[in-house]
Design brief:
By secondary structure, this protein is an all-alpha fold. The chain has helices at about 5-55, 65-80. It is built from two helices and no strands. The radius of gyration is 30 Å and the shape is elongated.
């Protein structure tokens, strides 16, 4: 094959490869979008679950778990700031 024909053949092959890579890139972008959406949905679900663990379902008032968590946070602040309880 003459050099000129090799160049044309090579360009045609690279064109096919470019199209294939472009299609693969589009598919990957779609997958990334799906995964990002799933991640946001998971984040939202986790926030809902966190809320459900600290609020009474019937009264919508903070429960004992919430109280214990808040007490622990405040206690750590007192220790950190070296404040005496009087």
């Amino acid at each position: 094959m003459p050099v000129y024909e090799n160049v044309i053949w090579s360009q045609a092959g690279s064109s096919d490869r470019t199209v294939e890579l472009a299609q693969t890139n589009v598919q990957l972008q779609q997958e990334i979008t799906k995964l990002e959406q799933a991640g946001f949905a998971l984040q939202f679900a986790n926030q809902e679950l966190q809320h459900l663990t600290i609020v009474d379902g019937l009264t919508q008032i903070a429960n004992r778990r919430c109280f214990d968590q808040r007490l622990q946070q405040e206690w750590q602040c007192l220790v950190r700031d070296e404040i005496d309880i009087q």
